[in-house]
Amino acid sequence: MGKLSSFSPADGAAAESLPHTFSSDPPPASAMSPVEPALPEVPEHAPYLLIGGGTASFAAARSIRARDPGARVLIVTDEADLPYMRPPLSKELWFSDDPSVTETLRFKQWNGKERSIYFQPPSFYVSPRELQTVENGGVAVLMDRKVTHMDVRGSKVKLSDGTEISYDKCLIATGGVPRNLQVIERAGEEVKKRTTLFRKIEDFRALEKVSRELKSITIIGGGFLGSELACALGRRSADLGLEVVQMFPEKGNMGKVLPEYLSNWTTEKVKKEGVTVLTDAVVKNVSYKDGKVQIRMKDGRVVKTDHVVAAVGLEPNVELARSAGLEVDSDFGGYRVNAELQARANIWVAGDAACFYDIKLGRRRVEHHDHAVVSGRLAGENMTGADKPYWHQSMFWSDLGPDVGYEAIGIVDSNLPTVGVFTKATAKDTPRAVTELSGTGIRSESETEAVAGAVAGAVAGAAGAPAPPPQQKEDYGKGVIFYLRDKVVVGIVLWNVFNRMPIARKIIKDGEEHADLNEVAKLFNIHDD
Amino acid sequence: RFYCKDRIIFVTKEDHEAPSNAELVEDDPNDPYEDHGLILPSGEINWNCPCLGGMASGPCGQQFKEAFSCFHYSTEEVKGSECIEHFRGMQECMQKYPELYPQEDENESGPSGGDDTAPAEPSNTDAASVPDSSVDEVTVAGTENAATS
């Protein structure tokens, strides 16, 4: 009769013909039009489980997929966003002319090339529901879910809603949460709701809105984030009629990173970006009074402002340490891992939350974008059997407006003795000029992903005695600064000198004692463009 | 002002003219810890090379690997000429994800760090010539000092 080719349960004849024991079960597949199996939204098992959906996690996912064909990778993040890069949130996004930038999160660089802060668009990913079955595997991102408990013995985690996911290999890349000042924590709701702890997309959107609607913003903190935000807001301050104040306990911007003379010079640059900079400022208390947030400093100075941004550091997220039985480092914070980024069998940690053993430079924890990429990649390699230690030294950078920028590598701590070799900057040396010339894409891309220039070779030869350098006025336009520990270079800052990172990396890797650092500086050809 | 622990040297172009006498340690090309460019010391392809962008890890990663491997190991006179089916499969896959593998010419030489941009597509349909631009760019990357990856 041709009825068997397709009939539905509503077909009375079909219902009669089914044995009664099957009446409550789904009809046999051959007798029905195809029924989709109901897969759960959250897969029960993930061969590769990555906790955290930031830069390190994404880098690991990519690395795993490159090395393990058909790998099934599940990223679990408590954010509502797919993995994205952070540096533009305090830099490029603020320089965009596009009024819809807070929606699109795209930005055009100096050379006209545009990109999104998201590492990949949604079409790159597979849905968590199909992760276990999709041909060739893929990367799935489970958003708005927090891993609250880790059962290492059972190789599984539990989410806040009770769902369990088992794993074979697990990466913890939970990053951190911005620190706050105790005085603000204690200051009450009126102050706290006028305070931004800046880290995520939503913080950028909120602060951007504030910058258009309010008249005064004060940034507390003089490090990378605080200074970058100050410069970004400062540039807009004239157009917006916005007062931008930045305050911090150090003597100058980047005071913990740059030697004093350079920190002072940098502070003057920040001021030129339209920022009122208050140095040697220790906040004593914060209150809300007469429609303004009042910040009182220990020396009696008072700042009255509409909104506060606290950029005073990051607290690494180690919430899973207890349930997982993982060690937390008491010196640097974060999960303690070995040189291969492993915490325990089948558990690795990468990014801001990882306190790792650096064979060259000793145990450390690094909170920079490129480190997240490098360590995430390495963790992914080791999760797929590589067993390689942290070796390729990550770098970092900062731009203070479009005219001053630097790249750095290694341990860059202003407490260390330094040797700075400087020349005079030309218009060719600014970050804007660099990207125009090289066209290698935005500065926020990981340096490891750009095609770098060739390493300058060392040429052993007769050393001519250099003429005594002319004493210039304090103009530190362009140069190289070496940071020393026991006479060995452990850190390098390239000051308005770009595309030289490979040689800097090489010098750190060698770990040699150099008698004359001016000779080492020659390797950078700082006078060339 | 006296910066005791921070030395400052100003140098002119002439000061830096003479070649440096600083010595660098010779690199071991077979160092197992080092990142490598596109081709590993064993001759195999390093799918994790940043120079590939995300080509080997995205939804068409499998097809990309098959096509590129075929090309890499091809000993035909016209290299990769026996790989046309693989490249066709790769292109078919990539066409399903125009967001990830844009077909326009705007892609520059280096794969960008984020988006899975394909190497610049040729206007003709000869699949064997597809990897040429990527080979050029990755060859450049591959011969770089290991530090570039």
Overview of this structure, please?
The complex is a heterodimer of chains A (529) and B (149). Chain A is α/β, with parallel strands linked by helices and 529 residues long. In chain A, 23% of the residues lie in helices and 26% in strands. In chain A, a hairpin with a 3-residue loop joins β22 (354-358) and β23 (362-365). The N and C termini of chain A lie far apart (84 Å). The model of chain A is unreliable at 1-25, 438-442 and 446-472 (pLDDT under 50). Chain B is mainly α and 149 residues long. Chain B has a domain at 55-103: Helix Hairpins (Orthogonal Bundle). Chain B contains 3 helices and 1 strand; from the N terminus they run βααα. Chain B has helices spanning 61-73, 84-95, 131-142, and one strand spanning 6-10. In chain B, α1 (61-73) runs antiparallel to α2 (84-95). The N and C termini of chain B lie far apart (43 Å). Classes of the chains: A alpha/beta (529), B mainly alpha (149). Chains A and B meet through α2, α11, β26, α13 and α14 of A and β1, α1 and α3 of B. β26 of chain A pairs parallel with β1 (6-10) of chain B.
Please describe the topology of this protein.
The complex is a heterodimer of chains A (529) and B (149).
Chain A (H helix, E strand, L loop, with lengths): L11 H6 L27 E7 L3 H13 L4 E5 L15 H4 L5 H4 L1 E3 L5 E3 L21 E5 L4 E5 L4 E4 L4 E9 L3 E3 L3 H4 L3 H4 L2 E3 L3 H13 L2 E5 L3 H17 L2 E5 L12 H13 L2 E4 L4 E7 L2 E6 L4 E4 L1 E4 L3 E3 L4 H4 L10 E2 L5 E3 L2 E3 L4 E5 L3 E4 L3 H15 L11 E5 L5 E6 L7 E6 L7 H8 L39 E8 L2 E8 L5 H10 L6 H6 L7
Chain B lengths: L5 E5 L50 H13 L10 H12 L35 H12 L7
